[in-house]
């Protein structure tokens, strides 16, 4: 009943709060409807003020233009240009008016003023007023500000009219010329357009009094009448009683009063708008804040209601659970639970239930541990005798059966070991070692145990172990390697054929690393396997758990590996985590802190800054191993990547000191032959056991590096650079000394083949001339002496066979010594050798050229 009462009160409060929220939101919206038009009007007020400033600048430019036309001297031109800059600045501020047509008209007038146009009346009065100033009036009036705006427009028009009269009289008074009848009529037209502001729309008496003190309508309208009469009388004699400057001074006093009144009206209107704007804005924000506070209160009340419902639900579930369990309890337990229920304490009930649940779980763990120990004894016997049996004389069928027994026994032993580790974890009997070990050595050894299994599935295994990891660390190497092998085993198991696994172990650099006694290491194992869904990630680290039931059937295993790895990492102060998407592989990662020993010596490495390392990567970009570059640069060597053709095109002086060749970089078998006689050291990278395949070239290689490329193998391969000179130097001496001062002509139409053949021959010490067809070959043979000619069979203009016949004819007719001609063709068909030898050629080489065959040809023909 109490709970029901509390829920009723909560629902009532929620209803009231919701009502208040609706009311405050409604008032906030009303205030916004009043605030928004004021904001828009305030913006229009700002645009209007900019327009007024633009008109002032334009009126001043018209006067300056007039003075320049009267006296086109440098001083007037400077003043005019300054005023034009001011107008341009004001035009940029008035983009809201869209003054494209007015700007074009202004530019036209400026051009005519610059040309000193004589038709000043049309230019400065008619055009300037009708095409520029008048349209701007219209756009300012179209803003439709408050009614006080009419008085401001009247004042602006009056000021413009006075400025127009000033500009007109400047011509008369400055030149001291008489006015023609049309000038007088134009003057009268200007005066007829002059309208005095009435200020009838202003209701504020105080404001009207202030304006009257500045501006008396009757007096203001008569200002200048006397001077105008005197100008009119003197126009015939051209002897005016005063100068333009005197007239302009009086006019400026009038304009000053107009500007003062106009500014007064503008400020009053602007302040009124700003005050209203701030007032409505403040009221709107107040209602919004009230609405937000009510919304927070509503959220709190809703949360309280949910909590009350949950408490009610939990109590009902607890009572039902106790009733279900009570059936299976003995009499003592029944009495215990009844007593607990009388205390009305949920905590005591939960403790009782937890103990009842733990007891069978502990019994299960004990049973698993005992069973595992019992199984290990006979299993060890099976494994031992199987090994003994393998060394006896067995038939092929018997050997296969023994292998199956051995593999099955090993798998079963792994399962038993997992169960034992799991039972130790559950019992809290895990003891961590704290011994000194070589981390890189240990990590690489644990990874190498799975290289063979990865090769069976043609998985590309890539390993990066940070060389900045200290040489020695304190920790538990056994459990760390067990963690790694569990993760790698999983990766190999779930990665499909020809997939990829990336293993990354690196030092985490922190700001306090120099002072901290610990070193933080980051471990990750990433595969391109089946992946794990978001839902399955939550269960993946639980004991006996796999992604789903089909996973266990398809891939085998107990599902303990990740659970054990996760618990070991947790014991060592880390956390195993996962990033994965279903069907896109998975990445398992964690960090551990290991202690550095005192007086730790740095890693001893060779400085290879004086050496260049070359690398020819595999054709498949997926198989490129960038770790080789990291390790080379760690030893400060320069690292460069080449294609096979790029390397062969290099001059001898530009060759790297050491070349790593990935065996998968060639399209065809035998192409590696081109590189074996280069004057450099060569390391061949292979992914599997190719001893038989590499038997013929093994002696020409400085080293074979078996994948995966790890830190230790890379360093050992790089160390051959610092060894005493070996066969690379001997090869260089042999190649460069054997065929020196030999002139060779190569006739080949394909540009790439030209480069390749030239590069190979130059490495053998020959001087090479290249031509593109048989005609050029014949001409070159006639002009220069050669020791040997390499002739492509199929070429444009003249083929190799015809060119050979022409060269032989030339040699006979000119009684010159015969130069050996070697046929080159990509179509290595049976009978080609005999056919081309019959045509007069001396030797035959199929493309691509075999280096041994090429050297044999050169040895035969060159002394």
Automatic annotation (TrEMBL):
TM region positions: 12-33, 284-308
Catalytic activity: ATP + protein L-histidine = ADP + protein N-phospho-L-histidine
Histidine kinase domain segment(s): 370-596
GO molecular function: phosphorelay sensor kinase activity
Recorded superkingdom: Bacteria
Gene3D superfamilies hit by this protein: 1.10.287.130, 3.40.50.2300, Histidine kinase-like ATPase, C-terminal domain
SMART domains the UniProt entry points to: HATPase_c (SM00387), HisKA (SM00388), REC (SM00448)
Domain Response regulatory: 743-862
Entries under SUPFAM superfamilies matching the protein: ATPase domain of HSP90 chaperone/DNA topoisomerase II/histidine kinase (SSF55874), CheY-like (SSF52172), Homodimeric domain of signal transducing histidine kinase (SSF47384)
CDD domains xrefs: HATPase_EvgS-ArcB-TorS-like, HisKA, REC_hyHK_CKI1_RcsC-like
Keywords assigned: Kinase, Membrane, Phosphoprotein, Transferase, Transmembrane, Transmembrane helix, Two-component regulatory system
E.C. no: 2.7.13.3
Modified residues (4-aspartylphosphate): 792
InterPro entries: CheY-like_superfamily (IPR011006), HATPase_C_sf (IPR036890), HATPase_dom (IPR003594), His_kinase_dom (IPR005467), HisK_dim/P_dom (IPR003661), HisK_dim/P_sf (IPR036097), Sig_transdc_His_kin-like_C (IPR004358), Sig_transdc_resp-reg_receiver (IPR001789)
Protein name: histidine kinase
Natural source organism: uncultured Sulfurovum sp
């Amino acid at each position: 009943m109490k709970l029901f009462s509390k829920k009723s009160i909560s629902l009532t409060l929620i209803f009231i709060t919701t009502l208040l929220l609706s009311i405050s939101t409604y008032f906030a919206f009303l205030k916004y409807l009043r605030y928004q038009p004021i904001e828009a009007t305030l913006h229009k007020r700002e645009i209007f003020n900019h327009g007024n400033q633009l008109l002032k600048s334009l009126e001043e430019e018209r006067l300056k233009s007039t003075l320049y036309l009267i006296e086109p001297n440098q001083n007037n031109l400077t003043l005019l240009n300054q005023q034009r800059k001011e107008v341009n600045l004001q035009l940029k501020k008035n983009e809201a008016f869209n003054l494209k047509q007015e700007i074009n008209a202004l530019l036209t007038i400026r051009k005519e003023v610059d040309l000193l146009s004589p038709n000043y009346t049309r230019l400065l009065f008619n055009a300037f007023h009708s095409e520029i100033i008048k349209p701007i009036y219209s756009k300012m009036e179209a803003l439709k500000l408050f009614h006080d705006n009419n008085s401001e427009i009247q004042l602006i028009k009056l000021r413009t009219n006075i400025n127009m009269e000033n500009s007109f009289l400047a011509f008369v008074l400055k030149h001291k010329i008489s006015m023609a009848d049309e000038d007088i009529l134009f003057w009268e037209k200007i005066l007829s357009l002059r309208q005095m502001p009435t200020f009838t729309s202003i209701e504020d008496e105080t404001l009207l009094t202030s304006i009257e003190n500045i501006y008396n309508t009757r007096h203001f309208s008569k200002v200048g009448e006397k001077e105008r009469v005197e100008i009119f009388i003197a126009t015939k004699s051209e002897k005016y009683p005063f100068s333009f400057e005197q007239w302009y001074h009086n006019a400026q006093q009038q304009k000053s009063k107009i500007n003062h009144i106009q500014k007064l009206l503008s400020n009053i209107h602007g302040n009124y708008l700003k005050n209203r704007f701030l007032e409505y804005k403040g009221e709107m924000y107040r209602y919004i804040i009230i609405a937000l506070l009510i919304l927070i209160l509503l959220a709190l009340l809703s949360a309280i209601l949910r909590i009350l419902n949950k408490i009610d639900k939990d109590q009902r579930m607890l009572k039902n659970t106790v009733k279900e369990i009570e059936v299976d309890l003995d009499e003592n337990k029944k009495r215990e639970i009844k007593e607990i229920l009388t205390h009305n304490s949920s905590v005591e009930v939960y403790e009782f239930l937890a103990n009842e649940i733990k007891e069978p779980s502990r019994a299960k763990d004990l049973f698993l541990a005992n069973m595992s120990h019992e199984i290990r004894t006979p299993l060890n016997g099976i494994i031992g005798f199987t090994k003994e049996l393998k060394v006896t004389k067995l038939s092929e069928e018997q050997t296969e059966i023994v292998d199956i027994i051995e593999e099955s026994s090993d798998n079963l032993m792994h399962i038993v070991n997992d169960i034992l580790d799991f039972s130790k974890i559950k019992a809290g009997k895990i003891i961590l070692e704290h011994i000194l070990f070589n981390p890189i050595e240990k990590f690489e050894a644990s990874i190498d145990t799975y290289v063979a299994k990865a090769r069976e599935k043609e998985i590309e295994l890539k390993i990066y172990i940070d060389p900045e990891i200290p040489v020695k660390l304190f920790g538990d190497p056994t459990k760390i390697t067990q963690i790694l092998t569990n993760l790698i085993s999983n990766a190999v198991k779930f990665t499909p054929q020809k997939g990829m696994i990336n293993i990354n172990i690196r030092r985490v650099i922190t700001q306090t690393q120099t002072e901290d006694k610990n070193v933080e290491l980051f471990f990750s194992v990433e595969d391109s396997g089946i992946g794990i869904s978001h839902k399955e990630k939550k269960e993946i680290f639980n004991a006996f758990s796999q992604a789903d039931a089909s996973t266990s059937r398809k891939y085998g295993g107990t599902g303990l590996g990740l659970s054990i790895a996760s618990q070991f990492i947790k014991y060592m102060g880390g956390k195993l985590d996962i990033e994965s998407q279903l069907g896109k592989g998975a990445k398992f990662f964690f960090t551990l802190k290991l202690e550095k020993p005192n007086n730790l010596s740095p890693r001893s490495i060779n400085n290879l800054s004086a050496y260049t390392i070359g690398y020819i990567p595999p054709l498949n970009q997926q198989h490129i191993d960038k770790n080789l570059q990291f390790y080379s640069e760690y030893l400060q060597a320069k690292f460069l990547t080449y294609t096979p053709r790029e390397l062969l095109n290099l001059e001898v002086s530009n060759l790297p000191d050491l070349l790593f060749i990935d065996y998968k970089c060639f399209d065809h078998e035998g192409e590696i032959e081109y590189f074996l006689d280069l004057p450099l050291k060569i390391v061949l990278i292979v992914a599997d056991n190719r001893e038989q395949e590499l038997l013929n070239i093994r002696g020409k290689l400085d080293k074979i590096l078996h994948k995966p490329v790890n830190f230790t193998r890379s360093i050992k391969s790089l160390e051959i650079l610092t060894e005493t000179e070996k066969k690379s130097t001997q090869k260089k001496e042999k190649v460069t000394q054997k065929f020196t001062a030999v002139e060779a002509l190569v006739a080949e139409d394909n540009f790439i083949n030209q480069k390749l053949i030239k590069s190979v021959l130059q490495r053998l010490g020959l001087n090479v001339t290249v031509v593109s067809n048989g005609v050029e070959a014949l001409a070159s043979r006639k002009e220069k002496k050669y020791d040997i000619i390499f002739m492509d069979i199929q070429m444009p203009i003249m083929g190799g066979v015809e060119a050979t016949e022409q060269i032989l004819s030339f040699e006979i007719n000119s009684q010159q010594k015969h130069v050996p001609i070697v046929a080159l063709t990509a179509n290595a068909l049976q009978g080609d050798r005999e056919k081309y030898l019959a045509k007069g050629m001396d030797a035959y080489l199929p493309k691509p050229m075999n280096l041994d065959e090429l050297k044999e040809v050169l040895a035969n023909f060159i002394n």
